[in-house]
Amino acid sequence: MSARPAAPAKASISLAWVGLLPFALFAFLFLILPTMFIVVGAFRTPEGAFTLANVRGLFTPSILAAFWISIRVSFWSALIGCLIGFAMAAAITVGRLPNGARSPLLTFSGVASNFAGVPLAFAFLATLGRVGLVTILLREWFGINLYATGFNLLSFAGLTLTYLFFQIPLMILIVTPALDGLRREWSEAAQILGATRFQYWRMVALPILWPTLLGTLALLFANSFGAVATAYALTGSSLSIVPILLYAQIRGDVLGDPHLGYALAFGMIFVTGVANAIYMWMRARSEKWIR
Questions:
Q1: What digits encode the pLDDT tens for the residues 65-77?
Q2: CATH classification (class only), 22-119+150-290
Q3: What does pTM read for this prediction?
């Protein structure tokens, strides 16, 4: 007598997926849905008809100049933030700083990486503005007139400097786990083979960390490219960058063009999307080595 075949097991959905539902709903309502609304609005007229005029408006000289300034600010703040943040992260991981310095630095980085907007702009105005604390101390104690040297906080250099306050901590938080992932055996093997410390970093450590560094550079670029509150509170309309231009188009003034604002937002989504895609691709490559 043949054995009776076992009934196929019923597919069951793990209850662990239920915990993702609130986040999925939140992401759909406040990220995916608004993004779709912006993309559709970029290709519509106020009457609802399809048009490419809004996208063609992105190629006017004033808007191209705003994109160029935003790209330059984002690039330089990301590059300088990567260099300084990497040096600080290396000091607390593979350097000779005492262990007690690691926890306070990482804690501060977690707070400072999220410190932006109007509070950050006010902090820099109160510190490096024309009547800021550091500006007055330099003039009264050392005879250095900071603004006579050509420095201006409400400028390209000033905005880049302000962005570094959250770019450097973000770099520290991202690159520290990658530095922790460097195995001690790699350094010991290099020393046994006669390599110097500089040769180890040039030929072993940096090639392994290179995808992480490039990916983080792209992430920091996207992080500063989309910042609007800090730039607007700090410079107002004196520096024409894309987020400020976007705000001017959609805030409801008589001269505002909401659909051109949608096109500007669509351009920002494209630029930041490319930067984030590069970051995710580079991070996936770096994790192969870190594992």
A1: 989 999 999 999 9
A2: mainly alpha
A3: 0.84
